């Protein structure tokens, strides 16, 4: 049996006993409860935040890419807003953990001689572990989001490229069809000269469409060089645009060559006559 608190000193060091037992250990039960409650709440925050990020990540992974510009833009906007919302929750959770850690360590900042007791050290380790866990969760989420966001942006680029391709190709097809329909070689010098002027005028009018096609093909090349995920879809369209442009230019040259020969013939006939 122990007759007094001092008898404890034979078995336990003063530094391990609280002041009410004549020891030197700083201990406040209400503070201990406050810290433990705060740590448990923070642990729940970390867990719920990780679950929200995991759920959002699953939604992103299962998302099908839209086939039109508007739907893609709306999806990009919606996902970005959700990501910003979750990043704010992460920021607040990190702030909560850092504030908790500062509160636990506060006595050491007020007194250089203060030494954290066992429970306080355990609380510090727990808070630091949870902060590390939260940081790792955020880093993993950031990496996943970066890849997903890039894919959505590339999808939007692709949808714009596809729409521009359809519009430009439709214009080129009309030009090509119009050029191919011209078979009149003229029956006089005046008529041939008129036909040559019409060819030159048509070529001049087609320049804007041809430049758009070449510019779009160059844009497609840039998408390919940027490691776009839809390279196999973009490259054939770039080749198609260039092929049509080359065919149109060749048909114009062919038409001009035919009319030039016709002009020579009619000029010679006029001289003979």
TrEMBL record:
The keyword Transmembrane helix does not apply. GO terms for molecular function: guanyl-nucleotide exchange factor activity. Coiled coil: none annotated. GO terms for cellular component: cytoplasm. It comes from the Eukaryota. SUPFAM superfamilies: Spectrin repeat. The keyword Cytoplasm does not apply. This is Uncharacterized protein. The lineage of its organism: Eukaryota, Metazoa, Chordata, Craniata, Vertebrata. Keywords: Guanine-nucleotide releasing factor.
């Amino acid at each position: 049996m122990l007759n007094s608190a001092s008898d404890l000193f034979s078995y336990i060091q003063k530094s391990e006993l609280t002041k009410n037992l004549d020891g030197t250990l700083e201990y406040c039960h209400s503070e201990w409860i406050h810290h433990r409650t705060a740590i448990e709440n923070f642990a729940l925050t970390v867990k719920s935040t990780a679950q929200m990020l995991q759920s959002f990540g699953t939604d992103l992974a299962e998302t099908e890419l839209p086939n039109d510009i508007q739907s893609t833009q709306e999806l990009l906007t919606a996902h970005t807003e959700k990501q910003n919302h979750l990043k704010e929750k992460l920021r607040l959770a990190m702030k909560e953990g850092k504030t908790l850690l500062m509160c636990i360590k506060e006595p050491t900042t007020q007194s250089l001689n203060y030494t954290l007791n066992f429970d306080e050290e355990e609380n510090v380790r727990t808070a630091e572990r949870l902060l590390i866990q939260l940081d790792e969760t955020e880093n993993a989420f950031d990496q996943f989001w970066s890849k997903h966001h890039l894919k959505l942006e590339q999808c939007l680029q692709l949808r714009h490229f596809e729409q521009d391709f359809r519009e430009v190709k439709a214009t080129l097809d009309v030009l090509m069809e119009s050029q191919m329909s011209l078979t009149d070689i003229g029956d006089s010098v005046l008529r041939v000269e008129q036909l040559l002027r019409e060819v030159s005028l048509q070529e001049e009018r087609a320049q804007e469409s041809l430049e758009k096609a070449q510019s779009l093909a160059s844009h497609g090349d840039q998408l390919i060089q940027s490691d776009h995920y839809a390279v196999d879809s973009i490259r054939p369209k770039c080749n198609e645009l260039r092929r049509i442009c080359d065919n149109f230019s060749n048909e114009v040259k062919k038409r001009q060559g035919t009319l030039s020969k016709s002009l020579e013939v009619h000029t010679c006939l006029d001289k003979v006559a």
